[in-house]
Amino acid sequence: MNGLAGLAGTLVTLGAILAAGAGAYAAWRWRFERSRFLVCVLGIAAALAIVAARTTSYGSAAWLRLLPDAAAIVFFIALLRALARQDRSSRRVAAAAHQNAVTGLPNRSTFIAQMTPAMARCRRDGVPAAILAVAIDGLGDIEARRGPATAEDALRDLAAVLRDTARAGDLPGHLAPTVVAAMLPGTAAEAAQRLAERLRAQVAERLPHPSMDGSRMTVSIGIAAIDQGIGRATLDEAMDAAETALIRVMDAGGDGIRLAEPPPHRHAEAA
């Protein structure tokens, strides 16, 4: 029995030494974060206290051995909480690299990465696809008159309507910070236009204009239908076509939908 107790004590001592080393490394890593650094320093002190307690005879005051053990338990709980916070922070940073900070939708690079295999599947299966590019009419004026926070709220609300309008299998995202979009696999031009009309109607119905003058928010929508003239267009060509159609709607006064024209070289191929 005494042998087992001695072995346990030795293991605790070795564990405390390792914990002190780990605490020293963590303290160096978090040396610029005061609260975490202090936790690590306290942990090192607790671990060293355990070593001292295990190698010192206290005589009748042997209960003092429990103090560093209790301190170690408190330290390790605090360390686990600090690591959990660090993990949550790392996940937020990772998410920010892939999402638009305002809407939470995939940013352009992530959106393209999601659309690429979807486009490949559509080509493999011989089915059409479409891309919608959507922008709030007068967003620059909203920001100038009501402030950036109001403009961000409007963009966030538009993203929410887009999510609600999109069907299972549709891919929402961003083509630009203020341009939301959706890829519609297996969707021909007519169906894409119907979905765009539904999105436009939902925006007008659900979103009041930030000017609070009783009017409703409006959007401009450009559509690139990959089965209509664009044929086997690349993903970049389809995105450019949708954005060009969007710009033409906005130049015409907004609050409308436009189907993109096929690139000139596609016309030549069709001829």
TrEMBL record:
<keyword id="KW-0472">Membrane</keyword>
<dbReference type="GO" id="GO:0071111">
    <property type="term" value="F:cyclic-guanylate-specific phosphodiesterase activity"/>
</dbReference>
<dbReference type="InterPro" id="IPR029787">
    <property type="entry name" value="Nucleotide_cyclase"/>
</dbReference>
<feature type="transmembrane region" description="Helical">
    <location>
        <begin position="62"/>
        <end position="83"/>
    </location>
</feature>
<keyword id="KW-0812">Transmembrane</keyword>
<protein>
    <submittedName>
        <fullName>GGDEF domain-containing protein</fullName>
    </submittedName>
</protein>
<dbReference type="InterPro" id="IPR050706">
    <property type="entry name" value="Cyclic-di-GMP_PDE-like"/>
</dbReference>
<feature type="transmembrane region" description="Helical">
    <location>
        <begin position="37"/>
        <end position="56"/>
    </location>
</feature>
<dbReference type="InterPro" id="IPR043128">
    <property type="entry name" value="Rev_trsase/Diguanyl_cyclase"/>
</dbReference>
<feature type="transmembrane region" description="Helical">
    <location>
        <begin position="6"/>
        <end position="28"/>
    </location>
</feature>
<dbReference type="InterPro" id="IPR000160">
    <property type="entry name" value="GGDEF_dom"/>
</dbReference>
<dbReference type="Pfam" id="PF00990">
    <property type="entry name" value="GGDEF"/>
</dbReference>
<feature type="domain" description="GGDEF">
    <location>
        <begin position="127"/>
        <end position="262"/>
    </location>
</feature>
<keyword id="KW-1133">Transmembrane helix</keyword>
